[in-house]
User: Which sequence fits this backbone?
């Protein structure tokens, strides 16, 4: 037989996992909650998980002969770069592609949410491939300084 659950203790434990509100003056641009407690090791692991999603952009497919090809046809010179500090850390994936011959296409993913919690980039490379294959991105005329954010 299971021990009875102490509802008050359970609620206290669960509420400790939620972002806690912090009093702010009107107009203060900072978030109104305390960031989630995330260790440096967990932050590093989160960044590695997102960058790892794009580790094989240039050699995503392997044919029976062992030759590799990029994530999608025409993709070349891929770069995966990390910018910003926690919780504003982002991963920027950029590359050249025939659909935008005048510059680079770039996809930016935020590693953490506003409270500092990890946001998994599940299937992000597949979503990128689908967007390129279906041409689901902004018009090339919206590019800024040779970068088309997609």
Assistant:
């Amino acid at each position: 037989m299971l021990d009875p659950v102490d509802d008050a203790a359970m609620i206290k434990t669960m509420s400790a996992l939620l972002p806690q509100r912090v009093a702010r003056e009107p107009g203060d641009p900072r978030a109104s909650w305390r960031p989630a407690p995330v260790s440096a090791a967990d932050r590093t692991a989160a960044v590695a998980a997102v960058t790892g999603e794009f580790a094989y952009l240039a050699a995503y497919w392997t044919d029976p002969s062992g030759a590799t090809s990029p994530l999608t046809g025409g993709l070349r010179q891929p770069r995966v770069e990390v910018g910003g500090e926690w919780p504003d850390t982002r991963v920027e994936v950029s590359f050249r592609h025939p659909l935008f011959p005048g510059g680079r296409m770039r996809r930016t993913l935020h590693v953490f949410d506003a409270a500092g919690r990890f946001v998994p980039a599940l299937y992000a490379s597949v979503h990128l491939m689908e967007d390129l294959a279906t041409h689901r991105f902004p018009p090339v005329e919206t590019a800024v300084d040779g970068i088309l954010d997609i």
